[in-house]
Amino acid sequence: MWLSKHYPKASFVRYADDVVVHCTSKAEAERVLETIKERLAEVKLKIKEEKIRIAYCSDYRRKGSHEVVKFEFLGFSYQPGARKSIKDGKQYKAFAAEISQSNQKRIREVIREMRLWSNTVVEVSSIAKLPNAKLRGWIAYYGKYSIRSLRNTLLMIDRRLIKWLRKKHKIGYRKSVAKLNLIKQANPELFYHWKMGYC
């Protein structure tokens, strides 16, 4: 590819029209960006300026500073954050992927709009069918790199279930939570996020 030929040390990831280029310095990133713009101009194409980011991938090894330290790509937000070491359990600073805020919001909206929450006549096994189809897709895509933030987002399913149990059985919040825990114990694979440990 053209980019590999001109910048052999700069690795890149491309999906459709979106590209992330990894450079060794800000100066190199600026040179690469200008070269890409020139190359696109040759074939009468332009980069969308609002999508351009030169971000510094800050972690425990890269301790410099930059005004932009995160970017979004394919539904993920790449940014510095605390992680726990598998070896000794200590926390360290990593540059890693999280499900983006906009996609967390979109998932919550999809969950909220599921009409099943107003149907208190059916049993919980019927309630599980519609969310499970969505849950499989979300967990398959986001679950590999974004377990923590995805878990926090999917907890909305459990919160909706608690509300549903309150309406169905006309009981208070604490009893609804206790009832949901009993359902989880009796049917740990009923909802796909329970089965996969997102609860």
From TrEMBL:
Gene3D superfamilies: 3.30.70.270. Keywords: Coiled coil, Nucleotidyltransferase, RNA-directed DNA polymerase, Transferase. Residues 1-78 form the Reverse transcriptase domain. One of its GO terms (molecular function) is RNA-directed DNA polymerase activity. Residues 26-53 form a coiled coil. It holds the Pfam family RVT_1. Belongs to the bacterial reverse transcriptase family. This is Reverse transcriptase (RNA-dependent DNA polymerase). It comes from Candidatus Brocadia fulgida.
